[in-house]
Amino acid sequence: MAMLWNIPAHRKLQVHQILCRKKERDRDQIHPYKVIEITPPPTSLGVRCLSPNLQCGESVTIEGKTYTISAVTHRYQLRKGKYQPSEKRLDVLSTGRYILNLYLENLLEQS
């Protein structure tokens, strides 16, 4: 919920409320990403709400640092005879480390 304050010239205070709600059918499908930086030692960057269709190689900014996604994992659980999403996980590397790894892999393939 967000609050907007609008103070007109005659000094009466008006408050506008903006409510943001998802449709009821979409509530079961909302799963934030668990983000883990996989550079040794692996560190958890917490649970983040990011765009729904992230793929390997995309850049993500978390707390002012830029990371590149190296793996996306979706986990499902069998509930009442149906598989339902239970967790989304992102394995990320700092962008500099990701580029360095690509360069070193290319050198290894060329040798």
Task: Summarize the helices and strands and which ones pair or pack.
Blueprint lengths: L1 E5 L7 E5 L14 E5 L5 E6 L10 E4 L2 E15 L2 E13 H16 L1
Parallel strand pairs: 3-7
Antiparallel strand pairs: 1-2, 3-4, 5-6, 6-7
Can you give a write-up of this model?
- With 111 residues, the chain is mainly beta.
- Helices cover 14% and strands 48% of the residues.
- The chain contains one helix and seven strands, in the order βββββββα.
- The strands form two sheets. It has a five-stranded mixed beta sheet. A two-stranded antiparallel sheet has the order 1-2.
- The radius of gyration is 21 Å and the shape is globular.
Name the shape in a single word.
globular
Task: Let me know the number of strands.
Answer: 7
Q: Please report the number of helical segments.
A: 1
* Regions with little confidence, pLDDT below 50 for 5+ residues: 1-21
Radius of gyration: 21 Å
Structural domain count = 1
- The computed structural class is mainly beta
Distance between the termini: 58 Å
Most strands sheet = 5 strands, mixed
Q: Which keywords apply here?
A:
111 residues; mainly beta; 5-stranded mixed β-sheet; 7 strands; two-stranded antiparallel ribbon; disordered N terminus
Short overview:
The protein is mainly β and 111 residues long. It has one helix spanning 95-110; strands at residues 2-6, 14-18, 33-37, 43-48, 59-62, 65-79, 82-94.
